[in-house]
Amino acid sequence: QVLLQESGPGLVRPSETLSLTCSVSGGSISNYYWTWIRQPAGKGLEWIGRVSASGNFNYNPSLESRLTMSVDTSKNQFSLKLTSVTAADTAVYYCGRGGIYFSHWGPGALVTVSS
Amino acid sequence: EIVLTQSPGTLSLSPGERATLSCRASQSVSSYLAWYQQRAGQAPRLLMYGASTRATGIPDRFSGSGSGTDFTLTISRLEPEDFAVYYCQHYGGSPEWTFGQGTKVEIK
Questions:
Q1: pLDDT 10s digits, B58-67
Q2: Is A101 within 8 Å of B96 when comparing Cβ atoms?
Q3: Cis link prior to B8 (omega < 30° from 0)?
Q4: Where are the alpha helices (DSSP H) in chain B?
Q5: CA-CA distances (angstroms) from residue A73 to A22, A79, A104, B106?
Q6: pLDDT score, position B95
Q7: What is the torsion angle, in degrees rounded to the nearest 10, for the CA atoms of residue A82, residue A87, residue A92 and residue A96?
Q8: CB pair distance less than 8 Å for B44 and A105
């Protein structure tokens, strides 16, 4: 059974960089695309971007200038970095398996942007 | 960007009743549409992909239909665990996937 788990700071200061890691267990990170999605409190879902095990990526155009995704196959992990954050980036961040639709999800990590 | 519009915003029904949820795309996405269920405090769960193919472990009271711009998710008989928020998501065209705003199915 494939399990995903997000980890990272729950509080980030405005203008700083949000960093999250998703650890994958129960299966290899190879041969799949891996995705980040976020959800502000009480609101809908926003696709952030995807990265393949070989390092190919696609980002949401609205976030692209601030976004970097990467994969560490040796650790079976993938990561998200979002720079210059503002309060609008406060959300629950989910990692997921799949590049087009998402069959497995982590439980989510709440990230609050506040001073 | 393809915009997905879900209706109604809220559906108030009783257990055992039939639920019909709609998702309309601003341009054709062929059959590249998925549905998710999100229970309170949980991550979304994939229900359907390819507009009408149930994901692994999804009971057959869930069915999906449609293609092009108009899609429907039907729950034939609502069980207590089906009261949740449902989202559609397209994956047609270039990778700039979007979700609908959600339909909440609540107990009447």
A1: 999 999 999 9
A2: no
A3: yes
A4: none
A5: 12, 11, 18, 42
A6: 85
A7: -30
A8: yes
Contact (CB<8Å) B102/A44: yes
Identify all chain B residues contacting A58, using CB atoms and an 8 Å cutoff. Answer: 95-96
pLDDT of A18 reads 98
pLDDT at A81 exceeding the cut of 90: yes
Phi, psi of B17 (to 5 degrees): -80, 170
Residue partners of B12: CB distance under 8 A and separation at least 6: B106, B107, B108
- Are B98 and A47 a contacting pair at CB < 8 A? yes
Q: How far is B15 from chain A (nearest CA, A)?
A: 25
Distance CA(B39)–CA(B37), nearest Å, equals 6
Closest-CA residue of chain A to B44: A105
Q: Do B99 and A99 touch (CB under 8 A)?
A: no
Chain segment B60-99, per-residue pLDDT in tens = 999 999 999 999 999 999 999 999 999 999 998 888 899 9
User: What region does B65 belong to: left with phi over 0, alpha with psi -120 to 50, or beta?
Assistant: beta
Sole residue written with tokens 């559906």:
B11
Which chain A residues are Cβ-neighbours of B84 within 8 angstroms?
A: none
| A46 contacts in chain B (CB < 8 Å) | 99
Please report which confidence band the pLDDT of residue A31 belongs to, taking 50, 70 and 90 as the band edges: confident
